[in-house]
Amino acid sequence: MARPSNPLISRSAAVTASIEIIDSEGLDAFSLPRLAKHLGVRAPSLYHHFSDKNEILTEVARYIAGTSVKRPRMRPGPGWPEFFVSLALNFRQSILRHRNAAPVLLQHLPRDLFVSTYEETAQFLLDSGVPVELHVRILDGMETLAIGAVLMEAMRRPNTKSTIFPNVDKNSQPLLAEALAANDLTQKQLFEAMVRSFLHGIIRDHDLERPNEAKSA
């Protein structure tokens, strides 16, 4: 379809409106005619900025998982793991703010979304004394861990401590029920602990300087 010569809306406005529709009405309600109606334009106007619905959804994913995620402001140093912990928590917050868009992120998340920031992050790791041969392990590991854990959480209903594993039967699954009863962490705290365990495992396995040792030195 030919694109109109004069744009009636901006690309960013269309993405914002798309997120509003998905947040309030669900993904099934989203369509180009619905988006056009929300923006007060005719559907062909959207083709000035986007080739099709998939391109719009890719930009929705890019905004939610990238643009809207706050990057922590930290100086390089032995406390570098906390940079990644904060970034992961900010990523989680942004995704869970738009739970209805979780399927969009699964299908349309641009593979190069995080690569654009990795050069800066690699410099941060280098300045923090982390050997360059560990950078890919950290960056790829954090990407895999955060995306997998957060999107899986987003696809489920909001959990409390007692429903992290839903429908556990005390009679047929007594050990799991006991473990849940003994757990004192929320879903957010479990995620944070998982990220820290990954990063501190790298520190331990490769004899890097530990943050607490740096503070006491």
User: CATH fold name of the largest domain, please?
Assistant: Tetracycline Repressor, domain 2
CATH architectural category of the largest domain:
Orthogonal Bundle
Average pLDDT rating:
90
Structural class, from secondary structure content?
Answer: mainly alpha
Rg over alpha carbons:
21 Å
The H/E string reads HHHHHHHHHH
What is the chains' assembly state? Answer: single chain
Distance between the termini: 66 Å
Largest sheet: none
Give the uncertain stretches in residue-range form.
none
How would you sum up the global shape? flat
Strand content: under 5%
CATH class of the largest domain: Mainly Alpha
Q: What would CATH call the homologous superfamily of the largest domain?
A: Tetracycline Repressor, domain 2
Secondary-structure topology with pairs:
Blueprint: H1 11-25, H2 32-39, H3 53-67, H4 81-96, H5 102-108, H6 115-127, H7 135-155, H8 174-182, H9 187-205, H10 211-216
Helix pairs in contact: 1-2, 1-3, 3-5, 4-7, 4-9, 7-9
